[in-house]
């Protein structure tokens, strides 16, 4: 038989209970950061895999068509800096059959892609409403559910990946060179820099910055003089819907700067990935939030757009033209960022 003292010792004392609770709290405190790190690593891996799939799709498109897809098609008479005009399908729409989106690749969409330049057929826009997992970075969830309502109409689904159109946005362009970043590489043109003396840019005057996918033009691998392993093909952009439903940044099927294209993003007030400069992106309907890493000159038409992401550690993922995916810190020197984006600048760089 138990004695009275033995019976009393069968339970926990208050001190013992508090010690157990404290130990559990310490274990949880140690476990939560570890779980968060694992989740962040998994999200970063998912973003890298998305970019890898998109890069491979662009390469498969190149195999089929002997060049990369255009950033966007713009038929004659369309204002290429206005969202309200009848701009055509972008690079993402062109690669739909290569990213297992056959259900969106309908006969009407295919016909539209083939006839847009001659007839202005915009039936391809029916795909714009679909949210695609491969187009979404896990770190940038805010605003994806907010319907876009801007100059290009309504219904455009959000995404986080953009092609590199290259280009130089500069206050003083050399004679014969368009000073608007978005237009400076139209039809595959190779702009040169001419504003160092007046603007104090990162590279000498005469430095070039040709793009990979431009208005009405896609680059051939043989056109990449700096090497496919040294030239960015795709990078990230952030959605702007949390700032305003009319902010067009991060719309996967819209072939405009900031939406699914980056351009002029190593020149003028676009300096580095995730720059915090006020008025950095020149986009129609954008909201200026420089402190939040989303600077925009709201009264400008579409001219310039920077690579941006919400990755922890202040970085962005990029895919090179050879399909390699790398993480680029936002602290990368502007001249190095320029060299990474240009297909023909002849600048050697090393990220390691």
Strand content: 5-15%
The number of distinct β-strands equals: 9
Described by strand count, sense and barrel closure, the largest sheet is: 5 strands, mixed
Q: What Rg, in angstroms, do the CA atoms define?
A: 24 Å
Q: Which geometry do the CA atoms define? A: globular
List keywords for this structure.
single chain, 352 residues, alpha+beta, 5-stranded mixed sheet, 6 helices, globular
Question: Helices and strands in order, then pairings?
Answer:
Layout: H1 4-8, H2 14-65, H3 91-94, H4 107-119, E1 149-150, E2 153-154, E3 161-164, H5 196-199, E4 213-214, E5 217-218, E6 232-236, E7 261-262, E8 315-320, E9 325-329, H6 334-341
Parallel strand pairs: 3-7
Antiparallel strand pairs: 1-2, 3-6, 4-5, 6-8, 8-9
What would your notes on this structure say?
There is one protein chain. By secondary structure, the protein is α+β, with helices and mostly antiparallel strands. The chain has one domain (40-341). Helix content is 24%, strand content 9%. The protein has six helices and nine strands; from the N terminus they run ααααβββαββββββα. The chain has helices at 4-8, 14-65, 91-94, 107-119, 196-199, 334-341, and strands at residues 149-150, 153-154, 161-164, 213-214, 217-218, 232-236, 261-262, 315-320, 325-329. It has a five-stranded mixed beta sheet with strand order 7-3-6-8-9. Strands 1-2 form a two-stranded antiparallel ribbon. The longest helix is centred in the first third of the chain and has 52 residues, at 14-65. The termini are far apart. The model has no long low-confidence stretch (mean pLDDT 93).
């Amino acid at each position: 038989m138990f004695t009275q003292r033995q019976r009393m010792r069968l339970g926990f004392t208050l001190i013992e209970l508090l010690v157990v609770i404290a130990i559990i709290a310490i274990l949880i405190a140690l476990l939560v950061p570890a779980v968060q790190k694992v989740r962040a690593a998994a999200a970063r891996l998912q973003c890298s895999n998305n970019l890898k799939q998109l890069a491979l799709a662009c390469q498969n498109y190149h195999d089929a068509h002997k060049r990369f897809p255009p950033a966007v098609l713009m038929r004659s008479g369309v204002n290429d800096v206005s969202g309200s005009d009848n701009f055509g399908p972008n690079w993402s729409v062109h690669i739909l059959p290569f990213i297992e989106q056959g259900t969106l690749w309908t006969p009407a969409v295919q016909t539209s892609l083939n006839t847009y330049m001659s007839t202005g057929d915009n039936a391809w826009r029916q795909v714009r409403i679909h949210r695609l997992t491969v187009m979404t970075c896990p770190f940038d969830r805010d605003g994806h559910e907010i319907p876009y309502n801007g100059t290009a109409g309504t219904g455009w689904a959000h995404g986080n990946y953009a092609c590199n159109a290259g280009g130089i946005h500069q206050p003083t362009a050399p004679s014969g060179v368009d000073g608007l970043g978005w237009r400076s590489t139209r039809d595959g043109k190779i702009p040169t820099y001419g504003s160092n003396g007046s603007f104090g840019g990162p590279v000498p005057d005469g430095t070039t910055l040709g793009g990979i996918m431009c208005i009405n033009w896609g680059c051939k691998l043989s056109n990449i003089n700096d090497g496919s392993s040294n030239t960015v093909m795709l990078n990230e952009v952030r959605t702007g819907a949390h700032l305003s439903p009319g902010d067009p940044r991060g719309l996967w099927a819209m072939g405009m700067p900031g939406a699914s294209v980056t351009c002029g993003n190593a020149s003028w007030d676009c300096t580095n990935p995730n720059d915090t400069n006020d008025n950095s992106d020149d986009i129609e309907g954008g909201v200026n939030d420089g402190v939040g890493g989303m600077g925009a000159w709201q009264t400008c038409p579409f001219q310039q757009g920077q690579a941006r992401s919400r990755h922890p550690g202040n970085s962005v993922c990029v895919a090179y033209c050879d399909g390699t995916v790398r993480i680029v810190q936002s602290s990368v020197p502007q001249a190095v960022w320029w060299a990474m984006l240009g297909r023909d600048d002849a600048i050697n760089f090393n990220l390691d």
